[in-house]
Amino acid sequence: MAFGVLWFSIIPKETNLCVYLLFLFFFLLSLTVNNSFIWIPDSMAAKMAGAVQVLKDDTVKRTPMARPSNGREGKPIRLLSNHFSVKLRGVDAVFYQYSVCIKSEDDKVVDSKGIGRKVIDKLLQTYCSELDGKDFAYDGEKCLFTVGPLPQNNFEFTVILEETSSRAAGGSPVHESPTQANKKRVKRSHLAKKFSVDISYAAKIPLQSVALALRGSESEHGQDVLRVLDVVLRQQQAKRGCLLVRQSFFSDDSRNLVDLTGGVSGCRGLHSSFRTTIGGLSLNMDVSTTMVVTPGPVIDFLVTNQNVRDIRDIDWPRAKKMLKNLRVKAKHNNMEFKIIGLSDQPCSRQMFPMKVRNGNIEIKSVDITVQDYFKSKQVELTMPYLPCLDVGKPKRPNYLPIELCHMVSLQRYTKALSSQQRAMLVEKSRQKPQERMRVVTDAVKSNMYDDDPILSSCGIEIEKQLTRVDARVLSAPALVVGNSEDCIPNRGRWNYNNKRLFDPVKIERWAIVNFSARCDMSRISRELINCGRSKGIFIECPHSLVDEDSQSRRCSPVERVEKMFEKVKASLPGPPEFLLCLLPERKNCDIYGPWKKKNLHEMGIVTQCIAPSNKMNDQYFTNVLLKINAKLGGMNSKLALEHRQMIPVVTQIPTLILGMDVSHGSPGRADIPSIAAVVGSRCWPLISRYRASVRTQSPKVEMIDSLFKPLDDGKDDGIMRELLLDFYQTSQQRKPKQIIIFRDGVSESQFSQVLNVELNQIIKAYQSMGQGDLPKFTVIIAQKNHHTKLFQADSPENVPPGTVVDSGIVHPRQYDFYMCAHAGPIGTSRPTHYHVLLDEIGFSADNLQKLVLSLSYVYQRSTTAISVVAPICYAHLAAAQMGQFMKFEEFADTSSGSVNSSSPPSIPELPRLHADVCSSMFFC
């Protein structure tokens, strides 16, 4: 009855009699059904909208939250950042955006950025008067920007280029007189090409928009202004002949190249981007590295790339695949060409038709070999037995002898690097903090950005000094190890010298299998057992040491694994609880994937793989045992607050912590499925144990689409159901009332999708498991792929672990902070950039930052604080390991076979983990 009185009390006084009667009808009906509430049908509610506002909208769009406050805890410290303050002397300027369409003589759209820039530069020189002498900022594709409008909204121009090589050095545009311009318009040699250029007005972008964004207001064109300013800087570097890769640029200077072997070099350049910060507009400048093809003779490249001693040993089908779309310069005429393939025959036998003249009379074409043709041009080939490069078109081949061609400089290498190349790139790209500070400061001074006509016309000035920022250093959380002994990390590190693991396991039935011919299994077994006992892990002697026979090594990886398991079964009285696998190499071993799949998918056996080496000391075996203990359900250490159940906010209320990541195929392989992995905490109130769930999805798709996956029978086969059920079963039959999501790998443009697509999937998965109130969510993005660096002002060392910055260089409105949780003994530390998109839980800034720091200390594989929270690292490891289960190369071949298929190829599903290991930390 009280509910009925409340119901009538909300009816507006002006409501007519008919509506009153409708309310009375539903009220009486509710009393006749056990006094329960009856939902009003949506159609009836619409008719009653004039009397009662029914708030039922599941499509409300969430936006990133504003910063509620700043943290205060920690020791204050003054730092420098690689942001350079940008002064806006006025905000009245307006950028005009124009759409550009460039077509060649055959009416095909030009998509080469290099040629596009040359065409626009030539256009500005030729038609300067028609354009009122306006300076352009051109992005190399379809957008052109000016300060103020052009004389009219639409233009059609014809541009003639004498030389169309996209990598020829470009110069600054020269404003010429109309007479000079007219002469250039009609002059055309036989090598020149004609282009048509259409320019049409697209939009206005007022500089005032960025001023509004800096004040924390929502601005329609704030990001557009930053994009225009970035285009201005990129255009400067393009005119200097630099290679442009997104917001980075690389100059053609041999001092910037580092040989990575295999015909690949690391090229050091610079990154630049304008950013809005709470301290004002800033230019973020950093050192950047990309991979390029090592310039030089094509023959040298192929020999190095395939690691052969003689040119005759080259695998030419492999070479053809490697060379396709690369550019070369021919020595005999100094022209550049793009490779489309190789000839079928060597130069000495490859024929092509050539027209021969006898005086002024043209005679029919005759067939001639490539070797004879060049001999007639006084070019003697020394290696006519090699195939030719085809630099023509698919139906009109144009052959060049390989020995006459050199690789053009500054060509990006987009294929996957080997493990050795990756290690060399990391090693040679490192820079100490002081060196990096000097490089970026010198770059800002030497580029003379203030002299740019577009920037100067807008009143934009860039400071030459690094920005000072206020930071705080949070104390490292105390850990608990064996016998509940406290362990205080020192500079982000701790060890187990004279200490035991917190919760060591007991290993009784296990074996060692050896796929490596050169190792002493007895020694490895003995030292592992001795090290384990000193850490509290009781390890029985292995039941068997299983060696692979020499005949099996000739079989395929899958067959080798099957044969090894037959020997293991024959040597053990029952299924082992653990297998130690010795591999011939640490990374990229073809045995690893089949071995992991056999154990985790088919047999349900925990396994640890190692590659024996000469450096197998006590520290090495300790690191191996940390992984083994975690995989078998033990715990190496945990937070003291976690042990005493005193973690603020998290310990008092059942809280699920998620780490989410998507792993994509290697560069150059856009057809390989992406792998989405999510890990969830278990055994609340612990925050150190996790379970993983992994799925495949479409290639290069960043948003996870399998968090909620309803099937035809109504059941949910998504990731979240698996993790929610596991949390419930391991946390005293309690549902999570709070869910903290850490999401890795998304850019700022994708924040909305995380909040409105992925979060909605998680909510649906929760709702599908039964009635009850929804949990409160906190959604945090962790970004490592950014270019902000922090430096100590009065020390050559990296910033101390626990450093947090939430002022000065952070977003002017949104809730973000930088944290450097780890110690950086080598190179320059890269802080993680955390964006808090949603916080329904209501953390204080200090409690949230301390939780993030604490989660960097619960990584069970390590005795150091890591740079990003452990759940994200675990998700990354789970995706990488499960990705080894499948041969995606086979999928790629089949998926690209049917060009005319109307439907996209199906994505192969990953094999599910065996029930005996699905809840383990197999990914450690």
Automatic annotation (TrEMBL):
SMART domains named in the record: DUF1785, PAZ, Piwi
Domain of life of the native organism: Eukaryota
Coiled coil: none
Region annotation Disordered: where it falls in the sequence: 168-187
Keywords: Membrane, RNA-mediated gene silencing, Transmembrane, Transmembrane helix
Domain (PAZ): residue spans on this chain: 297-409
Molecular function GO terms recorded: RNA binding
Bilayer-spanning residue ranges: 20-40
GO biological process terms on file: regulatory ncRNA-mediated gene silencing
Pfam families xrefs: ArgoL1, ArgoL2, ArgoMid, ArgoN, PAZ, Piwi
PROSITE patterns: PAZ, PIWI
InterPro entries linked: ArgoL1 (IPR014811), ArgoL2 (IPR032472), Argonaute_Mid_dom (IPR032473), Argonaute_N (IPR032474), PAZ_dom (IPR003100), PAZ_dom_sf (IPR036085), Piwi (IPR003165), Piwi_ago-like (IPR045246)
Domain Piwi: 578-887
PANTHER family: EUKARYOTIC TRANSLATION INITIATION FACTOR 2C (PTHR22891)
Homology family: Belongs to the argonaute family. Ago subfamily.
Role summary: Probably involved in the RNA silencing pathway. May bind to short RNAs such as microRNAs (miRNAs) or short interfering RNAs (siRNAs), and represses the translation of mRNAs which are complementary to them.
Protein known as: Protein argonaute 16
Organism field: Zea mays
Organism phylogeny: Eukaryota, Viridiplantae, Streptophyta, Embryophyta, Tracheophyta
